[in-house]
Design a protein that fits this description.
17% strand, single chain, transmembrane, two-stranded antiparallel ribbon, 9 helices, 298 residues, Spore Coat Polysaccharide Biosynthesis Protein SpsA, Chain A, Rhamnan synthesis protein F, seven-stranded mixed sheet, transmembrane helix, alpha/beta
Length: 298
Protein backbone atom coordinates (compact mmCIF):
# COMPACT_ATOMS: atom_id res chain seq x y z
CA UNK A 1 0.00 0.00 0.00
CA UNK A 2 2.84 2.40 0.90
CA UNK A 3 4.51 1.67 -2.41
CA UNK A 4 1.29 2.59 -4.27
CA UNK A 5 1.00 5.92 -2.41
CA UNK A 6 4.64 6.75 -3.15
CA UNK A 7 4.20 5.83 -6.82
CA UNK A 8 1.15 8.09 -7.28
CA UNK A 9 2.81 10.90 -5.33
CA UNK A 10 5.82 10.83 -7.64
CA UNK A 11 3.53 10.65 -10.67
CA UNK A 12 1.57 13.69 -9.43
CA UNK A 13 4.76 15.69 -8.85
CA UNK A 14 6.03 14.87 -12.35
CA UNK A 15 2.70 15.92 -13.82
CA UNK A 16 2.78 19.25 -11.97
CA UNK A 17 6.36 19.91 -13.07
CA UNK A 18 5.42 19.18 -16.69
CA UNK A 19 2.41 21.51 -16.52
CA UNK A 20 4.54 24.29 -15.02
CA UNK A 21 7.17 23.84 -17.75
CA UNK A 22 4.62 24.21 -20.55
CA UNK A 23 3.03 27.19 -18.78
CA UNK A 24 6.42 28.93 -18.75
CA UNK A 25 6.97 28.14 -22.43
CA UNK A 26 3.60 29.67 -23.26
CA UNK A 27 4.24 32.75 -21.13
CA UNK A 28 7.62 33.50 -22.72
CA UNK A 29 6.85 32.34 -26.26
CA UNK A 30 8.66 34.46 -28.82
CA UNK A 31 10.97 36.08 -26.27
CA UNK A 32 14.73 35.87 -26.08
CA UNK A 33 15.42 33.66 -23.06
CA UNK A 34 18.90 35.11 -22.60
CA UNK A 35 17.40 38.56 -22.11
CA UNK A 36 14.41 37.35 -20.08
CA UNK A 37 16.33 35.47 -17.44
CA UNK A 38 19.54 37.50 -17.36
CA UNK A 39 17.76 40.86 -17.42
CA UNK A 40 20.04 41.92 -20.26
CA UNK A 41 18.65 44.46 -22.72
CA UNK A 42 19.51 44.10 -26.39
CA UNK A 43 22.26 46.62 -27.08
CA UNK A 44 23.95 47.68 -30.31
CA UNK A 45 27.26 49.54 -30.33
CA UNK A 46 28.30 51.48 -33.45
CA UNK A 47 31.99 52.41 -33.35
CA UNK A 48 33.39 54.85 -35.93
CA UNK A 49 37.12 54.35 -36.47
CA UNK A 50 39.54 56.45 -38.48
CA UNK A 51 43.28 55.82 -38.22
CA UNK A 52 44.17 59.48 -38.03
CA UNK A 53 47.30 58.98 -35.92
CA UNK A 54 48.87 56.70 -33.31
CA UNK A 55 46.71 58.22 -30.57
CA UNK A 56 43.53 57.13 -32.35
CA UNK A 57 45.05 53.75 -33.14
CA UNK A 58 45.85 53.06 -29.49
CA UNK A 59 42.34 54.09 -28.44
CA UNK A 60 40.92 51.57 -30.90
CA UNK A 61 43.21 48.79 -29.66
CA UNK A 62 42.20 49.53 -26.06
CA UNK A 63 38.52 49.29 -26.96
CA UNK A 64 38.98 45.98 -28.76
CA UNK A 65 40.79 44.60 -25.71
CA UNK A 66 38.47 45.93 -23.00
CA UNK A 67 35.19 47.09 -24.54
CA UNK A 68 33.78 43.99 -26.24
CA UNK A 69 30.99 42.44 -24.15
CA UNK A 70 29.39 39.11 -25.09
CA UNK A 71 25.81 40.40 -24.78
CA UNK A 72 26.33 43.48 -27.00
CA UNK A 73 26.25 43.53 -30.82
CA UNK A 74 29.01 45.59 -32.39
CA UNK A 75 29.35 47.20 -35.77
CA UNK A 76 32.78 48.76 -36.22
CA UNK A 77 32.99 51.15 -39.16
CA UNK A 78 36.51 51.51 -40.54
CA UNK A 79 36.67 54.83 -42.38
CA UNK A 80 39.13 55.13 -45.24
CA UNK A 81 38.77 51.34 -45.58
CA UNK A 82 42.14 50.67 -43.99
CA UNK A 83 43.72 50.00 -40.62
CA UNK A 84 46.96 48.55 -39.31
CA UNK A 85 45.15 47.19 -36.25
CA UNK A 86 44.53 43.44 -36.16
CA UNK A 87 40.75 42.96 -36.18
CA UNK A 88 39.60 40.02 -34.04
CA UNK A 89 36.99 37.69 -35.49
CA UNK A 90 34.18 37.50 -32.94
CA UNK A 91 30.61 36.24 -33.35
CA UNK A 92 29.04 39.50 -32.14
CA UNK A 93 31.31 41.90 -34.05
CA UNK A 94 30.83 43.07 -37.64
CA UNK A 95 33.27 45.27 -39.57
CA UNK A 96 32.27 47.72 -42.29
CA UNK A 97 34.80 49.42 -44.56
CA UNK A 98 33.93 52.70 -46.28
CA UNK A 99 35.36 55.94 -47.65
CA UNK A 100 36.01 58.59 -45.02
CA UNK A 101 33.14 60.96 -45.84
CA UNK A 102 30.41 62.51 -43.74
CA UNK A 103 32.39 62.48 -40.49
CA UNK A 104 31.17 60.28 -37.62
CA UNK A 105 27.48 60.69 -38.35
CA UNK A 106 28.09 59.65 -41.93
CA UNK A 107 29.79 56.48 -40.69
CA UNK A 108 27.07 55.67 -38.17
CA UNK A 109 24.33 56.34 -40.72
CA UNK A 110 26.05 54.04 -43.21
CA UNK A 111 26.08 51.25 -40.63
CA UNK A 112 22.46 51.84 -39.63
CA UNK A 113 21.25 51.45 -43.20
CA UNK A 114 23.34 48.32 -43.71
CA UNK A 115 21.60 46.38 -40.93
CA UNK A 116 18.34 44.57 -41.66
CA UNK A 117 17.57 44.16 -37.95
CA UNK A 118 18.41 47.73 -36.93
CA UNK A 119 15.09 48.26 -35.12
CA UNK A 120 15.34 45.14 -32.97
CA UNK A 121 17.46 46.63 -30.18
CA UNK A 122 16.55 48.27 -26.89
CA UNK A 123 19.52 50.62 -26.70
CA UNK A 124 21.96 52.06 -29.25
CA UNK A 125 25.48 53.18 -28.33
CA UNK A 126 27.52 55.43 -30.62
CA UNK A 127 31.19 56.32 -30.20
CA UNK A 128 34.23 57.41 -32.13
CA UNK A 129 37.90 56.75 -31.67
CA UNK A 130 38.70 60.10 -30.04
CA UNK A 131 37.77 58.48 -26.71
CA UNK A 132 39.65 55.85 -24.73
CA UNK A 133 37.63 53.38 -22.70
CA UNK A 134 35.98 51.76 -21.01
CA UNK A 135 37.79 52.93 -17.89
CA UNK A 136 36.17 51.16 -14.96
CA UNK A 137 37.35 50.20 -11.50
CA UNK A 138 36.14 46.77 -10.45
CA UNK A 139 33.32 46.60 -13.00
CA UNK A 140 33.16 44.84 -16.35
CA UNK A 141 29.87 45.89 -17.97
CA UNK A 142 30.39 49.45 -19.17
CA UNK A 143 26.83 49.75 -20.50
CA UNK A 144 25.18 49.70 -17.04
CA UNK A 145 26.09 53.22 -15.83
CA UNK A 146 24.70 54.65 -19.07
CA UNK A 147 21.53 52.56 -19.02
CA UNK A 148 20.87 53.87 -15.51
CA UNK A 149 20.62 57.41 -16.94
CA UNK A 150 17.52 56.58 -18.97
CA UNK A 151 13.95 56.90 -17.73
CA UNK A 152 10.55 57.24 -19.37
CA UNK A 153 11.28 60.87 -20.30
CA UNK A 154 15.02 60.65 -21.02
CA UNK A 155 15.85 59.27 -24.45
CA UNK A 156 19.41 60.48 -25.14
CA UNK A 157 22.38 60.17 -22.76
CA UNK A 158 26.15 60.41 -22.90
CA UNK A 159 29.35 61.06 -21.02
CA UNK A 160 29.04 64.86 -20.94
CA UNK A 161 26.76 67.72 -21.92
CA UNK A 162 27.74 71.04 -23.47
CA UNK A 163 25.44 73.89 -22.45
CA UNK A 164 26.36 75.65 -25.67
CA UNK A 165 25.89 79.38 -25.99
CA UNK A 166 24.34 80.45 -29.28
CA UNK A 167 27.27 82.24 -30.92
CA UNK A 168 28.39 82.78 -34.53
CA UNK A 169 29.23 80.96 -36.72
CA UNK A 170 27.00 78.25 -35.25
CA UNK A 171 23.94 80.49 -35.58
CA UNK A 172 24.27 80.46 -39.37
CA UNK A 173 23.35 76.78 -39.56
CA UNK A 174 20.44 76.78 -37.10
CA UNK A 175 16.82 76.42 -38.14
CA UNK A 176 15.04 79.77 -38.31
CA UNK A 177 13.06 79.04 -35.14
CA UNK A 178 16.30 78.38 -33.24
CA UNK A 179 18.42 81.32 -34.38
CA UNK A 180 17.51 83.43 -31.35
CA UNK A 181 17.67 80.85 -28.55
CA UNK A 182 20.31 81.69 -25.94
CA UNK A 183 21.35 78.13 -25.05
CA UNK A 184 21.66 74.90 -27.00
CA UNK A 185 22.37 72.16 -24.44
CA UNK A 186 23.47 68.96 -26.12
CA UNK A 187 25.02 65.58 -25.41
CA UNK A 188 28.55 65.61 -26.80
CA UNK A 189 28.72 63.17 -29.68
CA UNK A 190 32.07 61.44 -29.20
CA UNK A 191 29.95 59.05 -27.11
CA UNK A 192 26.18 58.92 -26.77
CA UNK A 193 23.35 56.45 -26.44
CA UNK A 194 19.69 56.35 -27.46
CA UNK A 195 16.90 54.14 -26.24
CA UNK A 196 14.52 52.45 -28.65
CA UNK A 197 12.06 55.36 -28.69
CA UNK A 198 14.72 58.01 -29.22
CA UNK A 199 16.38 56.07 -32.01
CA UNK A 200 13.09 55.35 -33.80
CA UNK A 201 12.10 59.02 -33.56
CA UNK A 202 15.37 60.24 -35.09
CA UNK A 203 15.33 57.50 -37.72
CA UNK A 204 11.80 58.38 -38.87
CA UNK A 205 12.69 62.06 -39.04
CA UNK A 206 15.48 61.32 -41.53
CA UNK A 207 18.22 62.28 -39.09
CA UNK A 208 20.26 59.20 -40.04
CA UNK A 209 19.93 59.66 -43.79
CA UNK A 210 23.47 59.02 -45.01
CA UNK A 211 25.15 62.05 -46.53
CA UNK A 212 27.07 61.37 -49.74
CA UNK A 213 29.06 64.58 -49.72
CA UNK A 214 31.07 66.36 -47.06
CA UNK A 215 29.56 69.35 -45.30
CA UNK A 216 31.48 72.12 -43.53
CA UNK A 217 32.53 70.89 -40.10
CA UNK A 218 30.64 73.67 -38.27
CA UNK A 219 27.48 72.73 -40.16
CA UNK A 220 27.87 69.09 -39.12
CA UNK A 221 28.30 70.14 -35.47
CA UNK A 222 25.12 72.22 -35.54
CA UNK A 223 22.87 69.95 -37.58
CA UNK A 224 24.05 66.63 -36.12
CA UNK A 225 25.66 66.92 -32.67
CA UNK A 226 23.65 69.93 -31.47
CA UNK A 227 20.69 69.17 -33.73
CA UNK A 228 20.22 65.68 -32.32
CA UNK A 229 19.71 66.95 -28.77
CA UNK A 230 17.52 69.83 -29.97
CA UNK A 231 15.22 67.37 -31.76
CA UNK A 232 14.94 65.22 -28.64
CA UNK A 233 14.24 68.24 -26.42
CA UNK A 234 11.75 69.73 -28.89
CA UNK A 235 9.84 66.46 -28.76
CA UNK A 236 9.29 66.91 -25.03
CA UNK A 237 12.00 64.47 -23.92
CA UNK A 238 15.07 65.12 -21.80
CA UNK A 239 18.81 64.40 -22.10
CA UNK A 240 21.28 63.24 -19.44
CA UNK A 241 24.96 62.44 -18.83
CA UNK A 242 27.39 60.86 -16.37
CA UNK A 243 29.08 64.02 -15.04
CA UNK A 244 27.54 64.51 -11.56
CA UNK A 245 26.77 68.28 -11.65
CA UNK A 246 25.10 67.85 -15.05
CA UNK A 247 23.28 64.62 -14.21
CA UNK A 248 19.53 64.65 -13.67
CA UNK A 249 18.91 68.26 -14.74
CA UNK A 250 15.87 69.21 -16.79
CA UNK A 251 17.46 70.55 -19.96
CA UNK A 252 14.07 71.43 -21.38
CA UNK A 253 13.78 74.35 -18.97
CA UNK A 254 17.43 75.26 -18.35
CA UNK A 255 18.07 79.01 -18.75
CA UNK A 256 21.75 79.39 -17.86
CA UNK A 257 25.04 77.51 -17.89
CA UNK A 258 25.58 75.82 -14.50
CA UNK A 259 29.36 75.85 -14.93
CA UNK A 260 31.04 79.28 -14.57
CA UNK A 261 34.38 77.99 -15.90
CA UNK A 262 33.12 76.24 -19.05
CA UNK A 263 34.49 77.19 -22.46
CA UNK A 264 31.35 78.65 -24.08
CA UNK A 265 29.37 75.92 -22.32
CA UNK A 266 31.84 73.11 -22.99
CA UNK A 267 33.34 71.46 -19.86
CA UNK A 268 35.79 69.38 -21.92
CA UNK A 269 38.72 71.82 -21.91
CA UNK A 270 41.62 72.35 -19.52
CA UNK A 271 40.22 73.90 -16.33
CA UNK A 272 36.72 74.11 -17.81
CA UNK A 273 35.05 71.59 -15.49
CA UNK A 274 34.33 73.87 -12.53
CA UNK A 275 37.96 74.97 -12.57
CA UNK A 276 39.29 71.44 -12.92
CA UNK A 277 39.70 68.81 -15.64
CA UNK A 278 37.28 65.99 -16.33
CA UNK A 279 38.80 62.74 -15.07
CA UNK A 280 38.65 59.48 -17.06
CA UNK A 281 36.79 57.50 -14.39
CA UNK A 282 34.05 60.17 -14.28
CA UNK A 283 33.03 59.53 -17.88
CA UNK A 284 34.18 55.90 -18.54
CA UNK A 285 34.91 56.84 -22.16
CA UNK A 286 37.38 59.71 -21.95
CA UNK A 287 38.26 62.12 -24.75
CA UNK A 288 42.02 61.86 -24.37
CA UNK A 289 42.62 63.34 -27.82
CA UNK A 290 41.64 66.69 -26.31
CA UNK A 291 42.55 66.85 -22.62
CA UNK A 292 45.81 64.94 -22.98
CA UNK A 293 47.16 67.64 -25.32
CA UNK A 294 49.09 70.64 -23.90
CA UNK A 295 46.75 73.14 -25.57
CA UNK A 296 43.63 71.32 -24.39
CA UNK A 297 42.28 71.08 -27.91
CA UNK A 298 41.71 68.32 -30.47
Amino acid sequence: MKEMVLYYTILLVLLLVTLCFFAILTLFAGRDFRDTFAGTPRCLCLYAYYEKNEHYRQNFIFFLQHGILPHVRYCIIVNDSTTTVSLPELPNVTYLFRDNIGYDFGAWSHAIHSMADIHEFDFYFFMNTSVVGPILHGATDWTRPFLALFDENTKLVGTSINIQKNLPPLTLYLREDKKHVSLMPHVQSMFFALDRDGFAFLYRSGFFAEEVTNKPFQEVIVTKEIGMSLRILDNGWNINCLLPPYRGLDYRTLTADINPTSYNGDPYYTGAYFGQNIQPEQVIFYKNTRLDRPDGRV
